[in-house]
């Protein structure tokens, strides 16, 4: 039931601190985590569709950083037909809320037929993917009713972070002490997500402006890049405003041609080692009259020195886990823009909750 909330989507956005915490607990527990031979892996393959694919893209940064494990990732509709050569006795991770997405399931079957051990990160434990995979890492988001995925996404991120931590530990790139510290860091994320909800009134006001736009561009660098793409996907799905997510460094290679006063630019930029680079891209946007929505933390806001349409300030956090918490403001931006425009956010046109045909 929706309870006091106007829509399932906002109810599910608000559930995130609780379900992310619930998802993290078993996956951070080495005894309960799926037993995988991380040490034997040369490379990891990930496939998924839509929002689940963006969770996989964030995970690529984590597996490479924490596990020093190269990651190959592709959308399942491409992966399944590419006849990709896979490493001998390799490991494949599929990510899916429903566990029924036709292309992802076909990717899983391809991987199995090619000798891979398949781990399914799924929300529905009775799903086809859960049944056909060798191992399951369940996300405990609970039933997701809103067609646009929110809580399933952040639970996928939480699970994948725990798996990357496990990989790093097993492969000897993360010490026991570091693993303990990182586990504590990620366990603080639900509280940070809860704090991020305080941005809602500011985002509601901002939504009135965004609702007038024909196009909105999203930028991010590093693991914030997939969050930018997720923000753009969410906005287009429920408000029908055209939106695209780009790697901030790609600005000069094309998207800068689109910048003008009528095209808002949302930038996902936690204060990390890439912040200054992203901000210098945003100075170019500002110089061309672009109106910027900066999503950052206090330090980022203090160092940005750019005029913005809005600056959304999140609590300070370890940049490694920032993608999980930074998902919240991009979800709220999409939600409030669509609600202000009078759109049916829970049942957007042309979309189905589970895509069981390709
Ligand atoms: C976006 C959205 C879709 C799904 C995609 C995969 O809001 O919901 O992009 O993420 O269809 O679905 P699952 O995760 O069920 O495989």
TrEMBL record:
Enzyme class: transferase
Catalytic residues identified in the record: 353
One GO CC annotation: cytosol
Molecular function terms from GO: carbohydrate derivative binding; glutamine-fructose-6-phosphate transaminase (isomerizing) activity
Reaction catalysis annotation: D-fructose 6-phosphate + L-glutamine = D-glucosamine 6-phosphate + L-glutamate
Keyword Cytoplasm: yes
Superkingdom, natural source: Bacteria
One of the GO biological process terms: carbohydrate metabolic process
Keyword Transferase: yes
Annotated ranges, domain SIS: 30-173, 206-348
Signal peptide range in chain numbering: none
Subcellular location: Cytoplasm
Principal subcellular localization: cytoplasm
Recorded coiled-coil stretches: none
Keywords: Aminotransferase, Cytoplasm, Glutamine amidotransferase, Repeat, Transferase
EC code(s) of this entry: 2.6.1.16
Subunit record text: Homodimer.
Known function: Catalyzes the first step in hexosamine metabolism, converting fructose-6P into glucosamine-6P using glutamine as a nitrogen source.
Record protein name field: Glutamine--fructose-6-phosphate aminotransferase [isomerizing]
Lineage: Bacteria, Pseudomonadati, Pseudomonadota, Alphaproteobacteria, Hyphomicrobiales
Gene responsible for this protein: glmS
Residues represented out of the complete protein: 244 to 601 of 601
């Amino acid at each position: 039931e929706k309870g006091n909330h106007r829509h399932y989507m906002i109810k599910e956005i608000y559930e995130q601190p609780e379900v992310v915490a619930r998802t993290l607990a078993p996956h951070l527990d080495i005894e309960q985590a799926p037993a995988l031979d991380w040490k034997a892996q040369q490379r990891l393959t990930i496939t998924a569709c839509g929002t689940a694919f963006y969770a996989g893209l964030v995970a690529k940064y984590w597996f490479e950083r924490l596990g020093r494990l190269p990651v190959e990732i592709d959308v399942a509709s491409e992966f399944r037909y590419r006849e990709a050569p896979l490493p001998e006795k390799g490991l494949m991770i599929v990510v899916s809320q429903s566990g029924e997405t036709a292309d992802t399931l076909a990717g899983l079957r391809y991987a199995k037929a090619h000798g891979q051990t398949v781990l399914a990160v799924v929300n529905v434990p009775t799903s086809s993917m859960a049944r056909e995979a060798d191992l399951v890492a369940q996300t405990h988001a609970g039933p997701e009713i809103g067609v646009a995925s929110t809580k399933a996404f952040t639970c996928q991120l939480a699970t994948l972070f725990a798996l990357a931590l496990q990989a790093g530990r097993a492969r000897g790139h993360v010490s026991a002490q570091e693993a303990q510290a990182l586990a504590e860091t990620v366990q603080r994320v639900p509280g940070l997500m809860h704090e991020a909800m305080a941005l809602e009134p500011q985002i509601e006001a901002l939504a009135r402006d965004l609702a007038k736009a024909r196009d909105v561009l999203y930028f991010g660098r590093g693991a914030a890049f997939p969050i930018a793409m997720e923000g753009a996907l969410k906005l287009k799905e429920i408000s029908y405003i055209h939106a695209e997510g780009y790697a901030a460094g790609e600005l000069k290679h094309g998207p800068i041609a689109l910048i003008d006063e009528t095209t808002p630019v949302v930038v996902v930029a936690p204060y990390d080692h890439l912040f200054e680079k992203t901000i210098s891209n945003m100075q170019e946007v500002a110089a061309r009259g672009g109106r910027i929505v900066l999503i950052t933390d206090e330090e980022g806001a203090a160092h940005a020195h750019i005029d913005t349409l809005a600056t959304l300030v999140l609590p300070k956090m370890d940049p490694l886990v920032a993608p999980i918490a930074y998902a919240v403001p991009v979800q709220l931006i999409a939600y409030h823009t669509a609600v202000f425009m009078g759109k049916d956010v829970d049942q957007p046109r042309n979309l189905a909750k589970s895509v069981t045909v390709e």
